[in-house]
Amino acid sequence: MTMTTTPTTTRHSVVELTQVSRWYGNVVAVNDVTMTIGPGVTGLLGPNGAGKSTLLHMMAGFLAPSGGSATLNGRRIWRNHEIYRLIGLVPEKEAVYGFLTGWQFVLSAARLHGLPSPADAATRALDLVEMSPAKDRRIETYSKGMRQRVKVAAALVHDPQVLLLDEPFNGMDPRQRLHLMDLVRQLGEAGRTILFSSHILEEVERVAQQIEVLVAGRHAASGNFREIRRRMTDRPHLFRVRSSDDRRLAAALIADASSSAVSLTDQGVEVQAVDFSRFTSLLPKLARDLDIHLWQVSPTDEDLESVFSYLISRSSA
Ligand SMILES: Nc1ncnc2c1ncn2[C@@H]1O[C@H](COP(=O)(O)OP(=O)(O)OP(=O)(O)O)[C@@H](O)[C@H]1O
């Protein structure tokens, strides 16, 4: 994919949230979040309802923080029109009119921004997302991936330094997803400050250099994917083990420091492993030494929700 950038824009933008909170009536959607988003691609990872959309909307100037401050390059975002010109938001909702062509949609975004040459800007944005060949078709005839790209073009039409994307890869087929991932990566490499939200760790790992984890409105972890992975692997894991002699196996496991709790149940031995790598090498060794056959070893808490709850419990410790 080739990409053109506009040399006139300074590209080193930093979005800064300082103790930002947002509540809707009694619901605290975002709770005391402090984070800095710099150039390149950052992934905002969190389960549904974590407050990702609310956070992105505050960064885009669509929502006022109830407390704390959100700035871009040191300047307040909320109600600051000059700052709005530097930010593009790709919303999660399908905010596109099916009866418009891609060209009309992106052109109207250019006009709304009051750009001096809206047609040139629309052409450039459509080229950037490789949608020029389909620009004269109505949006309702587009695939999900094409729709998403045309939304990105509309968000990029004013050549913003900051691009915020809310769950951009949702509902796409694998090929479209790879295509958009490639585009997001390239936009980041060109020096833009990009933040996209997702509830899928693998998705975030593939595109983002930096990951910010949000759980129940709180900032639960921050780092590159290796650090986030490590923190997730370091957490206590709950395993269920079925073997030819559960009782003897449980006794041997309990004697080792790799597990904090071992219990015998109808379904086998349940082990709370506090040292993941030590436990996974110890178990086969014990089985061999004691001449016990292992029939089943399965993690019981591998879902992302439990990983998230672990991270949030750590961050509040
Ligand atoms: N306009 C609103 N009025 C009341 N509550 C809201 C409103 N918008 C969001 N919320 C609540 O705030 C919390 C955070 O919502 P938000 O949409 O920001 O999360 P999210 O991480 O983007 O989740 P999802 O991926 O499901 O959209 C949720 O509990 C949600 O129900």
List the helices and strands and how they pair.
Blueprint (H helix, E strand, L loop, with lengths): L14 E10 L2 E11 L2 E6 L6 H9 L6 E6 L2 E2 L4 H4 L2 E4 L11 H11 L5 H11 L15 H13 L5 E4 L8 H16 L3 E6 L2 H7 L2 E6 L2 E6 L1 H10 L2 E7 L2 H9 L4 E7 L2 E6 L2 H15 L3 E6 L4 H12 L2
Parallel strand pairs: 3-8, 3-9, 6-7, 7-8
Antiparallel strand pairs: 1-2, 1-4, 4-5, 9-10, 11-13, 11-14, 12-13
This protein binds adenosine-5'-triphosphate.
The site of adenosine-5'-triphosphate (ATP) has 11 residues, from strand 2 and helix 1.
Family: Belongs to the ABC transporter superfamily.
Pfam families: ABC_tran
Keywords: ATP-binding, Nucleotide-binding, Transport
Structure annotation, total helices: 11
Task: Provide the domain count.
Answer: 2
Tell me the series of helices and strands, N- to C-terminal.
EEEHEEHEHHHEHEHEEHEHEEHEH
- How much of the polypeptide forms β-strand, as a percent range? 25-35%
- What CATH first level of the largest domain would be assigned? Alpha Beta
Name the CATH architecture of the largest domain. Answer: 3-Layer(aba) Sandwich
Whole-number mean pLDDT = 88
The CATH topology of the largest domain corresponds to: Rossmann fold
**Number of DSSP E strands:** 14
Please state the overall shape, judged from the principal axes of the Cα atoms: elongated
Structural class: alpha/beta
Bound ligand species = adenosine-5'-triphosphate
Helix content: 25-40%
Biggest sheet: strands, sense, closure? 6 strands, mixed
* The CATH homologous superfamily of the largest domain: P-loop containing nucleotide triphosphate hydrolases
Query: Radius of gyration in whole Å, from Cα?
Result: 24 Å
Strand order in the sheet with the most strands: 6-7-8-3-9-10
Please give the alpha-carbon distance between the first and last residues. 46 Å
Keywords: ATP-binding, Nucleotide-binding, Transport
Pfam family, one: ABC_tran
Domain ABC transporter: 15-241
Protein name: ABC transporter ATP-binding protein
